[in-house]
């Protein structure tokens, strides 16, 4: 597995990244450390977390994922130097008032959050520090249209970049990135950075899966031309693209254990729409018809897509991790890729 470069940064990472948002909710600290051990042994050099994790987010678990990772670093003194570590400053508090006081994400919020992450992670530097979601109103994760009437006063992108520049200058952050961003947002962050001599974003971390390819609707060109790398998250569509919900759905007798079936808060999100499950069933059957497991096809699609630099996989066990890593060797035929595009033509992106 060759290393790939993140944007114009000097960060070289594996094209598979270990996502950790299950640590602290579905995964105990012992289980998290076993997954981290196995991931490192398998050659994965890239892990991603966030100050607000675990997910589903609660006041009791906020910051717990970073704490688990920090404790693992303390137990494994040589591990930190082998890894590219990414974490995120949460966007405005909205429905999570325990993240910070106030509704916004000021320069001081960014600086304070970074100090908290460094402390929990037990490290002196964060390799990739990302803004988890924009403070301004955007079309993302359940919002189908941009609505200017929902705009409210927000911290300017310039002010946020200046705060991030302070962290880079202090040696606490090496490079910066975005998450859940739009073409406008990515372009504006790059424009202002270049205009004012501020840090340039290396990455954008957005959802990308068979049931959500909104990235392909323009953000792909933006990132390609600006040399900003996509970190694709939820490649299995919160488990829909593993096939485990195909027969039972999310609730009732026989429903498998998973984030969508276990947590009501997750069932209210875009991933669990009836249209999303219907679409996932079609993709999953296409995989089976071609001698693949649904997981293999969904991951192989992301792993080898030209516009995906690294795919973030989230697991709850070592066995799941091994299954996801094994899918790296799967190559989809032109016929399967054509069939995937045909399904998308008919149903578009039901998990937007």
TrEMBL record:
Q: Does the keyword Glycoprotein apply?
A: no
Q: Record keywords: Oxidoreductase included? A: yes
| Keywords of this entry | Oxidoreductase
Q: What's an example of a GO molecular-function annotation for this chain?
A: oxidoreductase activity
Question: SUPFAM superfamilies, per this entry?
Answer: NAD(P)-linked oxidoreductase
Cross-referenced InterPro entries: AKR_Detox_Biosynth, NAD(P)_OxRdtase_dom_sf, NADP_OxRdtase_dom
Residue ranges constituting the NADP-dependent oxidoreductase domain according to the UniProt record: 15-343
Pfam family membership, one: Aldo_ket_red
Alphabetized PANTHER family for the sequence:
NAD(P)-LINKED OXIDOREDUCTASE SUPERFAMILY PROTEIN, NADH-SPECIFIC METHYLGLYOXAL REDUCTASE-RELATED
What name does UniProt use for this protein?
A: Aldo/keto reductase
């Amino acid at each position: 597995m060759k290393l790939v470069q993140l944007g114009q940064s000097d960060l070289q990472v594996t094209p598979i990244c270990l996502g950790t948002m299950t640590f602290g909710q579905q995964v105990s600290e012992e289980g998290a450390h076993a997954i981290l051990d196995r991931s490192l042994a398998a050659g994965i050099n890239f892990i991603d977390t966030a100050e607000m994790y675990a997910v589903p987010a609660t006041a009791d678990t906020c910051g717990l994922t970073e704490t688990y990772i920090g404790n693992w670093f303390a137990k494994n003194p040589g591990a930190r130097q082998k890894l590219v570590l990414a974490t995120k400053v949460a966007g405005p508090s909205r429905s999570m008032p325990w993240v910070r006081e106030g509704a916004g994400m000021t320069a001081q919020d960014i600086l304070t959050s970074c100090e908290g992450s460094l402390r929990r992670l037990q490290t002196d530097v964060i390799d990739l520090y990302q803004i988890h979601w924009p403070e301004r109103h955007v079309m993302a994760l359940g919002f189908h249209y941009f609505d200017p009437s929902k705009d409210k006063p927000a911290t300017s992108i310039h002010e946020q970049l200046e705060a991030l520049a302070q962290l880079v200058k202090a040696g606490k952050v090496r490079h910066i990135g975005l998450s859940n961003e739009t073409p406008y947002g990515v372009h504006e962050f790059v424009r202002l950075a270049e205009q004012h001599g501020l840090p340039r974003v290396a990455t954008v971390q957005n959802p990308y899966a068979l049931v959500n390819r909104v990235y392909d609707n323009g953000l792909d060109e933006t990132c390609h031309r600006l040399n900003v790398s996509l970190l694709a998250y939820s490649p299995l569509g919160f488990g829909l693209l593993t096939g485990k919900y195909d027969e039972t759905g999310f609730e009732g007798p026989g429903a498998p254990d998973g984030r969508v079936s276990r947590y009501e808060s997750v069932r209210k999100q875009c991933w669990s729409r009836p249209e999303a499950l219907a679409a996932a069933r079609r993709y999953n059957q296409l995989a089976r018809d071609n001698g693949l497991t649904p997981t293999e096809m969904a991951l192989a699609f992301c792993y080898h897509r030209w516009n995906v630099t690294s795919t973030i996989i989230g697991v709850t066990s070592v066995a799941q991790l091994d299954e996801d890593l094994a899918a790296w060797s799967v190559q989809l035929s032109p016929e399967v890729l054509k069939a995937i595009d045909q399904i998308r033509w008919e149903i578009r992106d039901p998990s937007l």
